[in-house]
Amino acid sequence: MKLALANSVRELTINRLFAFLEEAGEDVGMVNSNTLNFPTVYEGEECFVEVVAKVVKKDSDECYQEREDYKAKLIEKAEKKAEREKAAAEKKAARAAKEAEKAAAKAAKEAGPAEITEE
Hints:
The structure is a single chain. It contains two helices and three strands, in the order αβββα. About 60% of the residues lie in helices and about 15% in strands. It has helices at about 5-25, 60-110, and strands at about 30, 35-40, 45-50.
């Protein structure tokens, strides 16, 4: 894609995003020819969100592949997190069972030997 066309695409995209955010009530402003920002408050903290538009010089197959790679990365990350949480839950359950076993043994020891009664 020629530079002039890429610049036009980027400008159109930034203008569309700017109009969308402005309509949504955001205090949006341009920071650069391809960058806009707006303030926001999240959980009591104020910060600025910055949005950058760029036209990449890759073919469409590469761009679609990047999407798929990122999706796979997110799935892998979620699976690893689930495995860690499962392992932590199992460890916690084992620890609780061991504590219960210790408490039962202590209670039995404090109760003394069981009396045998004849019938």
